[in-house]
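Human:
Class, as today's exercise, you are to examine the entry below, and be ready to discuss the fold:
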Amino acid sequence: MKNVQQISVLLKPLAASLAVAGLVAFSLAGCDSANSKVPDAPAAGGPPVSTAAVIEKQITETQEFSGRLEAIERVEIRSRVGGFITSVNFKPGSEVKKGDVLFVIDPRPFQAEVSRAEGAAASARAKAELAKLELSRAEKLLAEKAIPQRELDEKASGLKELDANVRAAQASYEAARLNLSYTQVQAPISGRVSKAEITVGNLIDATAILTSVVSTDRIYASFDGDEDTYLRVAGTSQKGGPVSVKVGLANESGFPHEGKLEFVDNQLDPATGSVRMRATFANADRMLVPGLFARIQLDTGSGPQAQGTALLISDRAVGTDQSRKYVYVVGADNKAEYRAVKLGPNANGLRVVREGLKAGEKIVVNGLQRVRPGAPVTPQLVAMDFDPTAPAAPAKPAEKDAKVAANAAKAASTSKE
């Protein structure tokens, strides 16, 4: 029994040593296992970027400019005669017709002048009629040799002078009547009237501006086109051919108002390389008001470069290298290739490419700042008009129900386990 107790005492340290050794071995094995699961260095896939295929389709090329709306007719209303304003017959900002009386000036002094001139004209006519009768009698007396020829000549000359006095008096009478009509200040054109600059009771002269009227049935949109646009449309416009122009206001999307190019200036400004152009638009709904800012879309599809199909890309895919434009083309090896391009106008929200790309080539449209020439990338194919800033569309009810059912099934299977 004593021997057994001694052996037991000797075995306890040995067992403890073996246990410690086992723990160490297990730990080393765990470390080896963990180390074996550490992934290798990341594969050379490159940063993720969005790519899209270059589109080729038939388009009508347009150019967009900024301009201002201008009234076709604008008249500053002034009085032709001086006097006191006795009446203002319009509401500020209302539409008026040609011939409507806008202001009335005190007519009494002018009516008196008309009466005076009318009396003077009647007196001159009476004197001329008397002279004509006396001349007729003198001719009879001369035939009977009762008066000398000299007296007949004097009467004939006197009649001519009185006839001239009649015409002068009649002209004074007509001028007086005209001045009387000017006491009613009428609208010279149809359009929208401004506010009254001078109100009732004020004394005015012919230099005073009373108000203004602008036409509203049609309106101009003026803008500065570039040299390329001039070369495309000037010939057609100068020959009387139609060139379509569309306009959109600041609170409108797109270009809902359509008109035609009416004027192209005869020279370009050498300082800016631009040329003055003007289009005419119908304005039946009176939405176009002179002075408004306008976005103008000019149809340049008549030029030789606008025939056939065109390559289209998103503006987000275009980078600027000093004065050059470029894109990154992603090849079959998923490496980015720097490609200089020559761009054209905007068409349906995409940019026309003149040179540098082929239809179907994949280019980087988002993540351009993460790309380096010749470096690998991880392409994610999207549509060419993809907008990364647009909010994601909400899930449809069916999709939501499917997701809820899948989550419920997963939770049930987990609980069973």
